[in-house]
Amino acid sequence: MTFIPHTQQERDEMLAAIGCAHIEELFADIPSSIRCSRLELPDRLSEPELAQTLKELADRNQVPAPEKSFLGGGCYRHYIPATVDFVLQRAEFYTSYTPYQPELSQGMLQAMFEYQTMICQLTGMEVANASHYDGATSLAEACLLALGLNERTKIALAPGVNPRYRDVVETYLAGHHARIVTDSSWSCDLADLVDDDTAALVVQTPNFFGQFEDLDDLAENVHAAGALLIVVTDPISLGLFRPPGEYGADIAVLDGQSLGLPVSFGGPHLGIFATRTSLVRRMAGRVVGQTADAAGRRGYVLTLATREQHIRRERATSNICTNAALSALAASVYLATLGAQGLTTVARLCHAKAHYAAGQLAQLDGCVINRHAPDKPFFKEFALSLPKSVAVVNRKLLDDYGIIGGYDLSAEGKGFDNTMLVSITELHSRAAINQLVSAVRDICA
Amino acid sequence: MSEPTLYELSVPGRCGTNLPECDVSKVPLPDALVRDCNGLPSLSQQQVVRHYVRLSQHNYGVDSGFYPLGSCTMKYNPKISEAGARLDGFAEAHPLQPEHTVQGSLSVMFQMQEMLKQIGGFAAVSLQPAAGAHGELSGLLMIRAYFKDKGEPERCHILVPDTAHGTNPASSIMAGFDVVELPTDDKGNISLAALKAACSDKVAALMLTNPNTLGLFEQQIEDVIACVHDCGGLVYGDGANMNALTGIIRPGELGVDVMHFNLHKTFGAPHGGGGPGSGPVGAGELLRSYLPGPVVIHAPGSESRDETYSTAMPDSSIGRMAAHFGNFGVILRSFAYILLHAAEGLKDNAHHAVLNANYLKARLAEDYPVPFDRICMHEFVCQGRPENTYARAFDISKRLMDFGFHPPTNYFPLIVPEALMIEPPESEGPETLDRFVEAMRAIAEEARTSPEKLTNAPVTLPIGRLDEVKAARHPVLTDPATLSRR
């Protein structure tokens, strides 16, 4: 099945209007010597065959209920209200493209304007763009912005930054005379990572291990050294906890997957980027602004386009064109549905349940919570050190209890051997947590 | 239209959903870390739903009508793909799960890599990039790493034709190169003389879009590629216009060293109001080991488990371009699209896209002059200024809205004054194209007899022409209503 509506008669009439006898004549510019032979692709499937094939492939994945999975590490299975997918399925939204023609795209433009507004409120920042691909690429763009401000060549990364984000920043920096500096010791003073060649300090809070960093006075010290402070954070935590703007951050970077998007094997997610008004003309990505028509009726347009590749070409602030608009729409519907009170409740539930889980697990023989930094407060994730290897424990959890255990941190350097990152959301009931605790007890006994 | 904003609709105390009660004991919060208020609005669920339904009614997508936005391939998005991406097994699979528990997703990715290799004529494919421009950056970073390893780091020029998408020069700069622009000749091809003059031991690569953004096949493509290779440079293929050539040529076989595909263009994934897209990169033998990763590999089963697919970084990989495996949800939609079409179907798409574009061009040429007038591929560029008028492409576009159409791309490529870049994908039948022709002819007539109808347009929408200058001069980028209501 294809989606070509033309009948033979219609084709013939169109060719006659063009003055051709056969479609093949329209390809006369392409020498036969460079034509390819028939593509070797799988045989065509009918729609029911495709539906069956997709279902069989989906069934080959083992996907336990959210409360039977304790994986996080940057992607989380929070509850997604039904309103979100209801709106995402409105074809007027999902089959449109970048709203270059504002009068025909007011719906998406207003939704993006409201998205920018809610992101600014949530992060405590002044301006937000209309999205990047994911949190990691959003951070890479933030680092490039900082490097573009002056002649400095270092990006300092705090030890708790998501290692995958660090990898992406490193990839992006390959074309620039810049390098990443970091310090893997937990006792380091973050401000000490900054010197007079540092363009920005990147701090993640809650960090990759789920713990809050101490950001008091940090911005002041970073700014005194002439660098920017980039804060990576978790949008759910902002329902309850102080936002990057209150700590004096220059740029806030988040992955918005938690806000109404399924984990979807890692994408599409949502790169959130918010900054100060003074940096807006250096910011990458689309931005929606409010304006009016000749009759004074309020409307919205893409604006400040002189930063962008389609206008400025090699002088643009970034190459980004296609972004993650539909993901931003999902986040907006999520935030609007939960509202001020709802997001606070989700954050409180995550916090309380994670602490309950940590408390129960800490009572097991040989189990330690946050061994690397026991005094730092945490939000919805914590590092659980076990008396056995994580690989062994996780395999038994899955095979014998149908539970997907936490992310194995043993690859994250010394101090994390036999340690997993346990992630808890509002979807983990007390009973589900108790089940994990008793399973770990049995396995480690 | 004036739909109130979320903040104008907000009434403190409302909430749009019920959340579970806390079933564990309360723990004290770290007070110093707690904020006063999170600044979100408060609405009932019905308010939220009505708000977004009304907003959707003020938006135009492919499912609303003809959307001939050039270079964007706004084709029909099959609904079965949407259903497939929402299957729990796919949507709820976590990227950090053990590989043996996600064999379904890895199988989709492996098959997709194989199919794109076949379609593009490449040795290997990485699905990581999240969009076309992201694929460009990946490919250019691969080229950079290749020349570094080869001991030729002085190759710093990227040759970019003046018809290229703006992303090409922007990506070049992001990858740390300098841009050298190449002019177009009088037939709409890259000027071979200028290319020869620019080729030197400074050249890292040429970025080639074929068909180019004039919708024309690069007639001297073999000479162009040879010329760049002869000076030691590589060829980057911008696959944005691949819909015209799928099943007809394989860029890798022609000597293109690395290329991105736009799954949201050629392979029917929806554009999502601006994204997410997906921009997989294919590479020939020379560059395959530099691809971003991880990529999916076929591995023999281990122990008692029948594990078949695994992930790995290519040997000299430039690294990760995104946190995980790319936009799996978009990749899955295009996987479904390719399975529905198979080899014949994809080639039929190319044939009918080219048929549609040439038909529209032939029928519009009387009113809208076509520079570089030769057989076009999947799109063409005409001048939005009918003879003996002072009309502008911008005004014609606004007037098209009153006739119920989405306008074509305006003012691009830059080398055609008053450019209208028109792309009618294969899923549009002749009756739609004929209605569009009638509208365009009526507008040309208005341009001659009552030009104010163009400059005043649109007049049939809930809002009139918006003041973009005001928006840029006095930016209002967040809702002022947050100051008064929450």
Query: CATH top level of the largest domain in chain B?
Result: Alpha Beta
Instruction: Name the shape of chain A in a single word.
Output: globular
Task: Name the CATH homologous superfamily of the largest domain in chain B.
Answer: Type I PLP-dependent aspartate aminotransferase-like (Major domain)
Q: Percentage of helical residues of chain A?
A: 25-40%
Strand % of chain A is 5-15%
How many individual domains of chain B? 2
Show unreliable segments of chain A: none
Shape of chain B: globular
Percent in helix of chain B: 25-40%
Main sheet: strand order of chain A: 1-7-6-5-4-2-3
Structural class of chain B: alpha/beta
Please tell me how large the radius of gyration of chain A is.
25 Å
Side by side, the strands of the main sheet of chain B go 1-7-6-5-4-2-3
Task: Compute the separation of the termini of chain A in Å.
Answer: 58 Å
Q: What is the name of the CATH class of the largest domain in chain A?
A: Alpha Beta
Quick description:
The complex is a heterodimer of chains A (445) and B (486). Chain A is α/β, with parallel strands linked by helices and 445 residues long.
Overview of the structural elements:
- Chain A is α/β, with parallel strands linked by helices and 445 residues long.
- Chain A has two domains: 82-333, 3-Layer(aba) Sandwich (Aspartate Aminotransferase, domain 2), CATH 3.40.640.10; 341-444, Aspartate Aminotransferase, domain 1.
- Chain A contains twelve helices and 13 strands.
- In chain A, helix 7 (163-173) links the parallel strand 2 (154-157) and strand 3.
- The model of chain A has no long low-confidence stretch (mean pLDDT 96).
- Chain B has a seven-stranded mixed sheet, sandwiched between helices. In chain B, strands 10-12-11 form a three-stranded antiparallel sheet, with helices on one face. A two-stranded antiparallel ribbon of chain B has the order 8-9.
- In chain B, helix 9 (221-230) links the parallel strand 4 (203-209) and strand 5 (234-239).
- In chain B, helix 5 (103-120) packs parallel to helix 12 (328-364), helix 6 packs across helix 7 (167-174) and helix 12 (328-364) crosses helix 14.
- The two termini of chain B are 23 Å apart.
- The mean pLDDT of chain B is 96.
- Chains A and B meet through helix 1, helix 2, helix 3, helix 4 and helix 5 of A and helix 2, helix 3, helix 4, helix 5 and helix 6 of B.
